[in-house]
Structure formats: C-alpha cells, structure tokens
C-alpha cells in the first residue's frame, strides 16, 4: 500500500495561490460577508445601524485590500451576484400584485410623492455637486443614481456616465437611506406603514426596500411599488433631462 508522507502534501502557500486565483473565492467572500452582516443585523434586533449590506461592503473592501485582489478579478468571481440584481428587482412585482387592492384611493398621493421625491433627489445631488465644483462626468452619474442600481447602470450608459461609479452612488444612497430612513421618518412623525415604505422605496431603492420588508409586510409592498415606479420614470425621463440640462 502506498502511503503519502508529509513531504508529498502540497504546501499551504501553494494551495492558497491556487485558491486566490479562483473566481469562486470572490463569490464565497461576497456571500460570507453578507451572511455575517445578516447575522449581526438579526442579533441586533434589526437595528437599522447594523444594515447587512453596509457590513458586507465594509468586510469585502477590507478583505480584497488585505488579499491585494484587483477589483477586476473580484468582479469576475462575484458577477453572478451582479447578474441576479435584475432578477431580484423584477421579483418585487409579486408583493406589489398581492397588495394592489390597497392602492385604491391612494394613487394620487403616491404619484405626487413620487414626483417630489424623484425631483428632489436629482436636484439636491446635482446642486451640491456643482456647488463643490465636481467634474461633469461625475455629475451625470449622480443624476442616474437616483434610481435603483440595475436601472441606474443602464441609464448611465445612455447619458455617457460611468456605470461603475453610478452603481457606487446608487448603492451608497440605498445604504444611507436604509440606515437613516427610520430616524428621518420618526422625526417627521410619519407613522403609517404604507407611507414609510413608499418613502424608503423612492429614496433608498432596493436596499431600502429590503429594510422595509424586514420590518413590515405592508411597508415592503409599498417600498417595492415606490422603487419600481421610480425606476420606470427615471429610465424614461432622466436621459431627456440630462440632454436638456448638460
């Protein structure tokens, strides 16, 4: 019988070189980071400050920095998660359909809120950026970031902005909205779940919608509606607005 000696085993450094070059490492790293974030979120009794996406982003950034992994290599392995963004966005139509009956008598108020939220999101971002003297290419990305990331990246290509930067802006907006939305709405004394959910969907996109679902089903359904309507309106109107504005 052949026996394997310790000298026959590959060195740990050789194993690590193989694993670090595998695209699966980035996927495992992404999923593990989110699982840690989700666990901490649940253990904190779903405190918005412990947002799982925020925790996952921090962990992934620290990990690829320590591993000295180029972003292009990381994205090659994690692009499957990126592919699922569009699918996850479309699947939010299910709770909208289930709660469609509750929209009666509220559509007028919701449409007014949608217009106000969308316009405010664009004007404040562009106004502050221009006041600070930000490059016009980045300003275009800030216009497109007003909707959820998958749609924002498509808009960015149409308005000659960087899809990558636009995605960063959109995700950052979603994280901030999910973390701070509760406190802003409490300060404004907005108590109805459908109002809180719709506001989060418009302002904080997919991450805000996820936060709304984790708190209340009605809030989640209206957040889906707000995010979806905002995305449709943005995809149609933002390219025309950029062409007129820039």
Index terms:
11 helices, mainly alpha, about 250 residues
Word description of this protein:
It is a single chain. With 246 residues, this protein is an all-alpha fold. Helix content is 78%, strand content 0%. The chain is built from 11 helices and no strands.
- Indicate the low-confidence ranges by residue numbers: none
How much helix, percentage-wise, in residues? Answer: over 70%
Mean pLDDT: 82
From the N-terminal CA to the C-terminal CA, the straight-line distance is 77 Å
Q: How much beta, percentage-wise?
A: under 5%
In total, how many beta strands? Answer: 0
How can the largest sheet be summarized? none
- Count of helical regions: 11
From N to C, what is the helix and strand string? HHHHHHHHHHH
